[in-house]
Structure formats: structure tokens, C-alpha cells
What does this fold into?
Amino acid sequence: MSDYGKAFTLMRDAAQGQWRDYTRHAFVEGMKDGTLPREAFLHYLRQDYVFLIHFSRAWALAVVKSETHSEMLTAVATVNALVAEEMQLHIGICAAEGISGEELFATEERAENMAYTRFVLEAGYSGDLLDLLAALAPCVMGYGEIGARLASEATSDTYRDWINTYASPDYQAACQAVGELLDAALTRRIGADFEASPRWQRLCRTFRTATELEVNFWQMGLTP
It folds into this structure.
């Protein structure tokens, strides 16, 4: 198990069943052993590109919701990683499969995608940085955990590019930075004993719902 900070570990432990369904979904296991149909992977990748557009906007909203320079720096670095690096991975893989940048950008958003991205944005619009981070964390850290596990367990190189992206030192460092941001933001706004706060259960619910929406996203990937 990864160590991405105290708050993340507590939130993950509070959503154990959902977290297992997400990080060990059939889609993930199909990437591990190479049995995932290419059509399903490319369908997922196109939807994930659309997802990242909205996810980048949500992280830009984290800059707006920040109270310190340190919080702003982490949010800005995450936006840059999403736009300049992660989205480029999608463009590169799709280009190699004959899917142009214009086609990728024109991808029609699936309902499961819309439900997830709008949930995250709504958490940020209607709440503060804590509400937004609770909704953002499952995607960031979940992919970090999946990437790290598949890097050591994968029995096929079919999806090695994807695995290596999320297992990379850069991505793992980003997960740790977001974990530190979450811990510091909670301590600043609620106090060191944040899990005793009345707000804590609500934040855990937001995290759990976002995790369930991740499960739905993988499931969507299996149905091109």
C-alpha cells in the first residue's frame, strides 16, 4: 500500500470495498495481463482525455480556493502535470493508433464521464478546498497505487506505456505532494485532530462517492 499521507490513508480505509473495486477492477487487471481488448483501451483513453480537460479545470479551481502560497503552488504544479504531461500521453498513444488530435478533442462525452467530472467540479464550486480535494484525491492517488502495483505485477508489456506513466517517480511524487496538501489543508482549516471534526464524515463520503464514480468509469471503458 502507498503512503500518500495521513488523511488519504484514513479516507481510503473508510471506503475499503469501493477502493478495492476501483483499484482491482477487471479493466485494471486486463491491463496487467494484457487481455484488455485494444478497442476498450482506446475507448477509455478517449473518454479519459475528455475527463482530464475537466479535471484540469477542477485543479485550476483549487488555485482559486487556496488560502496560502504553498497550496497554490501544489495546485498549479498539478494543473501543469495534467495539461503538459498526462494529456500528452493520451494524444501520443491515440496518434499512434491513427486517432488525430482533432478527433480526440471531438470525443463525445459518455454519461458516466459527465457524472464524475461534474461531481468533482460541483464539490469545488459549492464547497471549499477540502471538499474539492476529497473529490479529487481518489483519481490522483488511485492511479498512483494502480501504476505502482502493475509495474511489479504486470505479466504483459501491452499496456506498459500507461503503467510506466503512473508508476514513474514523477507521478508518485505528485501523489505525495497532493497527500501533503490534503493533510496541511485539513490541519489549517480544522485542526490537527481533523478526523474528530463533524466535517470529517462528510469529506469521507465525498471521497467514497468519487471512488464509486471511478469504478463506473472503468466499467464504461469495457463497453465501447
Notes: The CA atoms of residues 61 and 125 lie 8 Å apart.
